[in-house]
Design a protein that fits this description.
mainly beta; Pnp Oxidase, Chain A; 7-stranded antiparallel β-sheet; 15 strands; 13% helix; globular
């Protein structure tokens, strides 16, 4: 192998593809927000903790600061284009689920809705938030999980069935065994 030096600011690009989620939140007025994230990971099994990173200016971050609740929705290939719409810059108070023609489902233990078209939903309550460079790391405790009955096979994600979205960068995703670009 022959190696080359890269700018350290782009080191994260080597940690790809990354699982992509849609985080749903509400503000204190009950207005729904949805946005995709690929800086995400599980951090603990007991208690079940999930982390994702957000910039301070995101409506998602502001809503989480206010309410301390969010839902992690795990999308599949069937909603890639709609996921992309949720990532557009809309003014505060605009419901991205409506803009993307996605269906909200009432959650059991938190106020933010889940997304019906997603393969799984993790209802979360904030455990802690910590500044990390130009992002904030938000760690939530998973309170409730709903999953498509075919989402797991032998206790593992049934990737062949659910076709999770893995973000490579920009408009590029790995779906199944092929690269797919959002048009």
């Amino acid at each position: 192998m022959e190696f080359t030096d890269l700018d350290v600011e782009n080191a994260y690009r080597l940690l790809a593809p990354r699982p992509t989620i849609i985080v749903t939140t509400v503000n204190l007025k009950g207005q729904v927000n949805a946005a995709p994230f690929s800086f995400t990971m599980p951090v603990s099994m007991v208690p079940p903790l999930i982390a994702f990173a957000s910039v301070l200016s995101h409506h998602t971050y502001k809503n989480i600061e206010e309410t301390q609740q969010f839902v992690i929705n795990i999308p599949g290939e069937n909603i890639l284009e709609k996921l992309w719409i949720t990532g557009e810059k809309f003014p505060p108070g605009v419901n991205e689920l409506e803009k993307a023609d996605l269906t909200p489902l009432s959650s059991d233990l938190v106020k933010p809705p889940s997304i019906a078209e997603c393969i799984a939903h993790l209802e979360c309550e904030v455990k802690w938030i910590k500044k990390a460079g130009d992002h904030q790391i938000i760690v939530g405790e998973v309170l409730k999980v709903h999953a498509d009955k075919n989402a797991l096979k032998d206790g593992l994600l049934n990737a062949e069935h659910v076709k999770p979205l893995l973000h490579v960068g920009g408009v590029n995703f790995i779906v199944g065994d092929h690269l797919k670009k959002v048009e």
